[in-house]
Amino acid sequence: MTPGGGRPEIVLAVRGLLRQPPARRFALLLLLLAGFGVLLLVVPRPDPGALPHLADHLGGYAPAVAVLAGALLLVALIPRTFVTLASGAIFGALEGAAYALGAALLAAALGFAVGRALGREFVAERARGRLARLDGWFARQSVLGVITVRLLPIAGYGLVSYGYGTTGARVVPFLAGSVIASAPTAFGYAAVGAAVTSPGDVNWFAAAPAALGLLASVALAHRWWRAERQRRLGPS
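Given the sequence above, the corresponding structure tokens read:
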């Protein structure tokens, strides 16, 4: 604690960081992402056989720990596929999918907040020409637009969250679109993770939402593409 008003030191540190010049904050964001990239190369992979026993050790705290740990892994640029597979292996298909979606929502919020705090001002000051139009497109995006971007294989889940924070995107459509786009693979990969560790306990009907979610995502993406095409063509 600090003597001036008793405010926590971490609050003062965050405020001091936000007072830094935009270029310095943006450099810190790039350094953070580079550090996460290095960690991906050096951190050892867990033993899949040990995953199912983790929930027993955590007891009643297991759901909260699963969501928080999953979110932290996602913002550290761990692939969402791995996080969802591990969640299914630990908790089973349906519970694992639910916790994976909770982690995806929390990670999207955290990544967006960090990107907005460290990179938005830097990007806004330099948005000119095509970059300005692209930034405006992100600012106008609906939930459907976020879903479409999330479904494109352009970058990992955490990296997209950071990137969205640096744009003028609105937080509510971003969070809603992120969760909806994550639902199909959450159920599918959680079922696969559960099958790997406990093949006899998996009800494969639990993976049915993945197929339905995939069809819905394709339909939404097609609808968005048609709307964008009509907007570009203008009134006839």
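Residues 56 and 62 are 8 Å apart (CA to CA). Try to locate this feature in the token string yourself.
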